[in-house]
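User: Structure please.
Assistant: Input sequence and predicted structure:
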Amino acid sequence: MNKVILMGRLTRDPEVRYTQTNNTLVATFSLAVNRRFVRQGEERQADFINIVAWGKQGEFCSKYFKKGQQVGVIGRIQTRNWDDDKGQKHYVTEVIAEEAYFAEGRRQDSGDMGAAGNFENTFGTEATSGNSEFELTSNDDLPF
């Protein structure tokens, strides 16, 4: 079974591209996912995981997800490789998003946030319960 469940913060706004063959939308972004345990005397570490969302899922992510926002992604791990123009082999491991969710409560600030500014927590109450390992008190705590 190949199933991945992640919750983290976007390190950048999603990038959108379209395939050359059938013009399918592909959104790519990276999630900073905090590691569960912290060694004594060290800061919490995060892993930066590349996410790929295709079609309608990619359209949703590109439209509503923004840098710094906490989101949940359910998907599968996929690896691929290719040779570049110089004959050098490249390998990449990424998560193909099958589901994507907002993972924080309604935004309080009244800045220009467009349609993404008025959302409810759809990933579960634990994400904003105050006991979450992902809760941040300021943007200074972001790992990017």
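The CA atoms of residues 26 and 54 lie 5 Å apart.
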